[in-house]
Design goal:
about 15% strand, binds 2-phosphoglycolic acid, 14 helices, 8 strands, alpha/beta, eight-stranded parallel barrel
Length: about 280
């Protein structure tokens, strides 16, 4: 982790937990987490199922210092898109994060780099904080294609970032400012301070119990940062948080986040139990 970048500990509940369990979850995790400066410096985010994004849960999450996010957002504001979620409505509900291009969306629901980019653009324009997922599968890793796959996924992402034009430059400065204590000043000027993070989630590590080693994660994260430098800009690459995801546990978190280019974790299974997730958060401080 590098203190000049946002540090994010995020939990993706996938299709688990309902509203009742969600309320209990935030009550328990509030008790399990001490108030500490170390925790206050981190962004703690939960991506529950959409039916858990109600105001009572929102309030309870806030008490426990968590922000909420949606597991998917559509590229249009409204319309005939059955089963999709509007980023602008989520913003009005104070749900300020979106997970985009998770490998399960890519694998089971036809998400492509093209549709993911469109979702990213809509969320970015609305000032939503974004975690954009990329990663190779086992076959691709074994065939030595990891960098080629990630590079293609990052090209689509970078093209979308660059299409936002001047706003990218302004935002990078603003987001750097947010880290160094000048966010009030930049917010007063009406600029967005939204975060666009990349989550590196090797598909072979998701839900399998096989985590990338800290060395593997650092090597890939460094490659991702170099690619962003080439494809977008040096400033953008230096400012973008890169999270690791795939079988993260309380036991392996510390060694993963100790790496310079690992700016946090995106946790699936181990985020479902408040005690386990609290341990991960403490291990990441
Ligand atoms: P896992 O899932 O932690 O259960 O491997 C990670 C994810 O899919 O984001």
């Amino acid at each position: 982790m590098n203190i000049n970048r946002a540090q994010i500990i995020a939990g993706n509940w996938k299709m688990n937990h309902g509203p009742h369990e969600a309320l209990e979850y935030f009550q328990s995790i509030r008790k399990a987490l001490p108030e500490s400066a170390g925790i206050a410096r981190k962004k703690l985010v939960i991506f529950p199922v959409a039916y858990c994004l109600t105001s009572a849960i929102q309030a309870m999450a806030k008490l426990a210092n968590f922000e909420l996010g949606a597991q998917n957002v559509h590229w249009e504001t409204k319309g005939a898109f059955t089963g999709e979620l509007s980023a602008s409505v989520l913003q009005s509900m104070e749900v300020h994060w979106a997970l985009i291009a998770h490998s399960e969306r890519r694998q089971y629901f036809g998400e492509t780099d093209e549709t993911a980019s469109k979702r990213f653009l809509q969320a970015a324009k609305l000032g939503v904080n974004i975690i954009y997922c990329i990663g190779e599968n086992l076959k691709e890793r074994e065939a030595g294609k990891t960098e080629a796959i990630l590079s293609a996924q990052l090209s689509a992402f970078s093209k979308a970032v660059l299409s936002l034009g001047a706003r990218v430059k302004a935002d990078v400065g603003t987001r750097m400012g947010a880290r160094t204590g000048t966010s009030a000043e930049t917010e007063a000027k009406g600029k967005s301070t939204s975060i666009w993070a990349i989550a590196y989630e090797p598909v072979w590590a998701i839900g399998t119990g096989k985590t990338a080693t800290p060395e593997q994660a650092q090597a890939v994260h460094a490659f991702i940062r170099k690619s962003l430098e080439k494809k977008v800009s040096e400033e953008f690459a230096a400012d973008t948080p890169i999270l690791y995801g795939g079988s993260v546990t309380p036991q392996n978190t510390e060694a993963l986040v100790r790496n310079e280019d690992v700016d946090g974790v995106l946790v699936g299974g181990a985020s479902l139990k408040p005690d386990e997730f609290a341990k991960i958060i403490k291990a990441a401080i």
